[in-house]
UniProtKB/TrEMBL annotation:
It comes from Amycolatopsis tucumanensis. The keyword Membrane does not apply. This is Sigma-70 family RNA polymerase sigma factor. Keywords: Sigma factor, Transcription, Transcription regulation. Residues 174-272 form the DUF6596 domain. Residues 106-156 form the RNA polymerase sigma factor 70 region 4 type domain.
Length: 402
């Protein structure tokens, strides 16, 4: 990795933690975002030239705090009010930073906001995703997402939503949005929607860390157990998912000896706990059970597709979304053949702007020997945008068709 890229990743990773702390100090999401953005720009300008500070987070925190004070005074002067003193922020220990991250999740996921706004705001602030990346993750236009984020920040300020981890009795009301947020942060890290890399390891690590924090708060909650299990099982394949050149290695071709067996063991154990504690099927526990089927198969050829499809049938009863239908169709294609899978894929509504619907069609058409239709579908997938490694893989498949 180039030195400049390493610095950029460090700044992005530490910037999220600094933002979480600065929101607590300032009480303003917008002010904290502006101040941290300015500090990030300064770091990207100076660190490659002068070297990374001994305490990168402390440097960013102090720089962002000073910028926040300037912005705070400027706004006070504009409104004709006297600026109150803002407490000085010293670099804080890791456990305080972790608490700030969790506070930020729960602040973004307050019931006063719509579920869509909760998840979008948490992805933007906590996950560090751009507005465009959040829009792609939630399958909405970028302009719509920008307006949604602005309204959410304004409502937090107007409603004086507290920046804290809720009391135990309040946790269940927040869990749906919090779990969705952590899951989507992981997804963006596991298979980036854009950029030069397939994996953004800082996001997958952040999501797993947050899932563990949630598990410490709610150790018997099936949703939390399933969420953590799912992330661990998916992430267990990280070392086998790309080759030495950064090209994606698909599941059938992965070297399973490189999978993280300790993560698989923990994940499977959590699936069992989640299944025992769930009164009704839980979407994250069921998804983790599907991931466990893949993790425990000795080889791709020995995957228990009956079990996988059975779990997808359960998932469709509790979370019948177009993306779940797509994944179910792909599993059916593995068991019953590409024609059966393609019939299900073509019957799914609402995914024409989703590149992986077109990619799935292309692959199944490719297997069926429908070269012309497969070429069209591959091109449609590529036109909708994805990370460069994913695009490179689809271009290779397209080239195979001549």
């Amino acid at each position: 990795m180039e030195a400049g890229d390493a610095v950029a990743r460090l700044v992005r990773d530490e910037g999220t933690r600094v933002l979480a702390t600065l929101i607590r100090v300032t009480g303003s999401v917008g002010l904290a975002e502006d101040a941290v953005q300015d500090a990030v720009v300064r770091a990207l300008e100076t660190w490659p030239r002068d070297g990374v500070p001994d305490n990168p987070r402390g440097w960013l925190l102090v720089t962002a705090k000073r910028r926040a004070v300037d912005l705070f005074r400027r706004e006070a002067a504009r409104s004709g009010k006297e600026a109150a003193a803002m407490p000085f922020v010293e670099p804080e220990p890791a456990e305080v930073v972790a608490d700030d991250l969790l506070r930020l999740v729960f602040t973004c996921c307050h019931p006063a906001l719509s579920l869509e706004a909760q998840v979008a705001l948490a992805l933007r602030t906590l996950g560090g995703l751009s507005t465009a990346e959040v829009a792609r993750a939630l399958l909405v236009p970028e302009a719509t997402m920008a307006k949604r984020l602005t309204r959410a920040k304004q409502k937090i300020a107007r409603a004086r939503i507290p920046y804290r981890v809720p009391e135990a009795a309040e946790l269940p009301d927040r869990l749906t949005a919090v779990a969705a947020t952590v899951y989507l942060i992981f997804n963006e890290g596991y298979a980036a929607a854009a950029g030069a890399d397939l994996v953004r390891a800082e996001l997958t690590a952040e999501a797993i860390r947050l899932a563990r924090l949630l598990a410490s708060l709610m150790p018997d909650e099936p949703t939390v157990l399933g969420l953590l299990a799912l992330l661990l099982l998916q992430n267990s394949r990280r070392d086998a998912r790309v080759d030495a050149d950064g090209v994606p290695v698909l599941l059938p071709d992965q070297d399973r000896s490189r999978w993280d067996r300790s993560a698989i063991k923990e994940g499977v154990s959590l699936v069992g706990r989640g299944l025992r504690r769930a009164v009704e099927p839980d979407r994250y526990v069921v998804q983790a059970a599907i991931a466990a089927c893949h993790a425990l198969a000795p080889s791709y050829a020995e995957t228990d597709w009956d079990a996988v499809i059975s779990w997808y049938d359960v998932l469709l009863r509790i979370s019948d979304t177009p993306v779940v239908r797509l994944n179910h169709a792909v599993a059916v294609a593995e068991r019953d053949g590409p024609a059966a899978g393609l019939a299900l894929v073509d019957a799914i509504p609402g995914l024409t702007s989703y590149p992986w619907w077109h990619a799935a069609r292309a692959e199944l058409l490719h297997r069926l020997g429908a070269a012309a239709e497969a070429r069209t579908a591959y091109r449609q997938a590529l036109a909708l945008g994805m990370s460069e490694p994913q695009a490179a893989h689809l271009r290779l498949r397209l080239a195979e068709l001549g």
